């Protein structure tokens, strides 16, 4: 990390003058350096790589900004890259906009920028343009980040909900609930025996290979706010199908399960930042699970249910470990605000 002697962000860092230029030229740009960003234009001119252009945007207001398993910088790149990945795209370039509260520690900003750099490198994307704003004390909560991203989808990947069919399988890419309990434990400083870590991670390195190998994957979605329950309810409402899942097959680690029980939370509703749901033809499910388990990030992938016609269309039905059935409703409100 380059040396930068000031200790705190001031309103002058957002003024467009000398201090702002020093912040950009001595701290931010050197870490994110690439040919396009070096041009210092208001917009980035990108090469057309062919195929379909996929575009997304997201904002990050997580609290606390540093948490076990990640930080707001790591999260901002993962979240945007993963949204592109869920559409079967290979992420290519991101914008980065920072809204910083006056008084924010420069050392913390350095850590966040370094985290952004490392995560972008892992994802194989460039930060090509951006913006920095500074607001007064009390007008923000330390730092907010907005990232927009583009990717290219060169394969015709049918990732729309309207391709889902009765008989399809529902797969989750790994154990769920880690991000939600990690944020809550860090925010409330809860003394669990084992440190609970977020699962925040780049998913595109898996999904690009997945969709090339299995072009008949119907649909993918990362299970962020509202967790797997929200993702499946949204899909059930869109398709009109019933989605049946089995409690015994839902992968949850003992530490997450124990923390959720203590806090009165259901892991199905907890946010994830490194897990996604896949809908695929039923006959391909086992083959896809074996493929996913070759990757560290999805080594606990599991089929948890399927798509069906039934008397309860548009609903998600859970079969419990005792054989009873209950409806998994769409989350109402936020179990835990400012999760991402």
Overview of this structure, please?
The model has no long low-confidence stretch (mean pLDDT 94). It is built from 9 helices and 13 strands. The longest helix has 18 residues, at 106-123. It has 2 domains: 11-153, 2-Layer Sandwich (60s Ribosomal Protein L30, Chain: A); 161-327, Phosphoribosyl-aminoimidazole Synthetase, Chain A, domain 2 (Alpha-Beta Complex). The protein has 340 residues and is an alpha+beta fold. The strands form 3 sheets. It has a 7-stranded mixed beta sheet with strand order 8-10-7-11-9-12-13. Strands 1-6-4-5 form a 4-stranded mixed beta sheet.
Per DSSP E runs of 2 or more residues, the count of β-strands stands at 13
Within the CATH hierarchy, at the fold level, what is the topology of the largest domain? Phosphoribosyl-aminoimidazole Synthetase, Chain A, domain 2
Q: Which structural class should the secondary elements be placed in?
A: alpha+beta
CATH superfamily of the largest domain: PurM-like C-terminal domain
Number of domains: 2
Query: What percentage of amino acids are in beta strands?
Result: 15-25%
Strand order of the largest sheet: 8-10-7-11-9-12-13
Q: Quaternary status of these chains? A: single chain
Helical content class: 25-40%
Q: Number of helical runs?
A: 9
Q: Describe the global form.
A: globular
Sheet with the most strands, sense and barrel status: 7 strands, mixed
State mean pLDDT (0 to 100 scale): 94
Low-confidence stretches: none
Rg, Cα atoms, Å: 21 Å
Helix and strand sequence: HHEEEHEHEEEHHEHEHEHEEE
Spatial gap, N to C terminus: 26 Å
């Amino acid at each position: 990390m380059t040396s930068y002697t000031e200790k705190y962000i001031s309103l002058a860092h957002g003024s467009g003058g000398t201090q702002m230029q020093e912040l950009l030229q001595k701290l931010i740009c050197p870490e994110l350096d690439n040919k396009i960003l070096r041009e210092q234009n208001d917009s980035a001119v990108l090469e057309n790589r062919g195929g379909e252009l996929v575009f997304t945007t997201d904002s990050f207001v997580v609290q606390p900004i540093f948490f076990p398993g990640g930080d707001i910088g790591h999260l901002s790149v993962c979240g945007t890259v993963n949204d592109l990945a869920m559409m079967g795209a290979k992420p290519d370039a991101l914008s980065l906009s920072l809204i910083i509260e006056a008084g924010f520690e420069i050392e913390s900003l350095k850590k966040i920028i370094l985290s952004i750099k490392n995560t972008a490198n892992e994802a194989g994307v460039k930060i090509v343009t951006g913006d920095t704003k500074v607001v007064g004390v009390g007008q923000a909560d330390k730092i907010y980040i907005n990232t927009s991203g583009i990717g290219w989808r060169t394969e015709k990947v049918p990732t729309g909900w309207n391709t889902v069919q009765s008989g399809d399988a529902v797969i989750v890419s790994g154990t769920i609930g880690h991000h939600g309990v990690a944020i809550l434990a860090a925010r409330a400083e809860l003394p669990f025996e084992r440190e609970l870590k977020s699962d925040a991670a780049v998913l595109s390195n898996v999904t690009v290979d997945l969709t090339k190998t299995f072009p008949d994957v119907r649909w993918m979605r990362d299970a962020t706010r509202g967790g797997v329950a929200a993702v499946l309810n949204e899909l059930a409402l869109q398709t009109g199908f019933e989605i049946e899942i089995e409690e015994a097959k839902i992968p949850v680690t003992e530490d997450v399960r124990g923390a959720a029980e203590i806090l009165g939370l259901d892991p199905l509703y907890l946010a994830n930042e490194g897990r996604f749901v896949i809908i695929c033809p039923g006959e391909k499910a086992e083959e896809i699970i074996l493929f996913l388990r070759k990757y560290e990030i999805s080594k606990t992938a599991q089929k948890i249910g399927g798509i069906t016609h039934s008397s309860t269309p548009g609903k998600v039905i859970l079969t419990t470990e005792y054989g009873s059935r209950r409806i998994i409703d769409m989350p109402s409100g936020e179990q835990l605000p400012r999760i991402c």
